[in-house]
Amino acid sequence: MPILVSCKCGKKLNAPDTLAGKKAKCPACSAMLVVPEVLELIEDEIEFIDEAELVDEVPLPKARAARPKTKAEKFAEYDAEPESRSDAPEQTEYDRKLSGDTHASNPGNVKVDVLFAFMNSPTGTLVMVAIALVLLALGAWNFTKPDGGKTGSGFVAVGIGTLVICAYGWHLFSRTMIYGCANPGVVVDADKGLVAVITDLDCGAGEEHWVIKIGKYPLSKMTGGPGEDGMRLGTVAGYAGDASKGHWDTFEPYVVNCLTRDKKRIKKVLATFSARDWVMLNEGLKEVPTPYKTGQWRVLEDLGAE
Question: Can you give the C-alpha Rg of the chain in angstroms?
Fold first, then answer.
């Protein structure tokens, strides 16, 4: 069986198989060539392997399931910085004293619509004002009696005192809505008026202390209402507790839509929350027991450990 040999000059030659492994001279250019050896294979001795059998005997590696992302990794995918507040108010010395010499990282700067907010305020405030008015009315009525001047003066004094307390409390509340911290909230039960709000109670110690508080609000009366489940809301809160522990004990959020009719102001507060804030609220809610009810829960405790 002849063996095909190619020379560098381009000549192709057929060498007899007796020259396999030996040198030969090219008749065209006289260059020395090495005739390659040929391995004789007997076709019936070759074992062919079926592809299907090969797959069965050597199984393909199974695709590894993706590792679930940790909370920290989920939050890292989102912008942690809220929109800059060009309208953030400057805190006065008076307000520093009111807030325990602390300053909110994201001040609400919500100017309360007094009449609108008063009608949406907690029942306790309305009751106190009603009591004050009743006392004043009793005082005026006693003044009409010949010997009721002393009693009337007492009723009037108590009534005025009650109104002063209400007015001062309202003053503090209004300042809190300007300098208090804005936090994201979401309606979790529109029928019951329940809104969940998340915040970090850390007050400078550098250790995150996330909590979710669920409160009841007059959603049917609020601007843009009535609320519905899943509706996002901006809130502003005041904080209370022993700050020496490194974090506050609790906070009291108020829904901005219940404090003002100014839709531009409501949108501005909502714009200060980043996508990360809403993700954290959603993740935190997964740790709150259902059905939802009013209360406060510690959430995302394992966030710092991941």
Answer: 41
According to DSSP, residue 302 is labeled T
Q: CB neighbours of 289 closer than 8 A, spacing ≥ 6?
A: 297
Backbone conformation region of residue 100, classed left if phi is above 0, alpha if psi is from -120 to 50, else beta:
left
Nearest to 258 by CA among 187, 159, 206: 187
**Residues shown for the chain:** 306
- DSSP track, 100-128: TS---SSB--PPP-HHHHHHTS-HHHHHH
Select, from the ranges 111-125, 189-203, 240-254, the one with the highest average predicted confidence (pLDDT): 189-203
Distance of CA 254 to the CA centre of its chain: 18
Give dist(CA 132, CA 179) in Å, integer.
Answer: 29
Residue 18, pLDDT > 50, answer yes
| Beta carbons of 107 and 89 less than 8 angstroms apart | yes
Give me the pLDDT at residue 103, please: 54
| Comparison of pLDDT for 145 and 191, the residue scoring more | 191
Reported confidence tier of residue 107, pLDDT bands at 50, 70, 90: confident
pLDDT at 235: 93
Q: Look up the CATH number of domain 94-298.
A: 2.40.410.10
| Measured distance CA(201)–CA(238) in Å, rounded | 11
Query: What is the C-alpha to C-alpha distance for residues 135 and 86, in angstroms, rounded to an integer?
Result: 46
Q: List C-alpha distances in Å: 134 to 61, 87, 131, 144, 216.
A: 82, 42, 5, 16, 28
User: What are the residue boundaries of the structural domains of the chain, listed by start?
Assistant: 3-45, 94-298
Return the closest-CA partner of residue 181 out of 245, 110, 266. Answer: 110
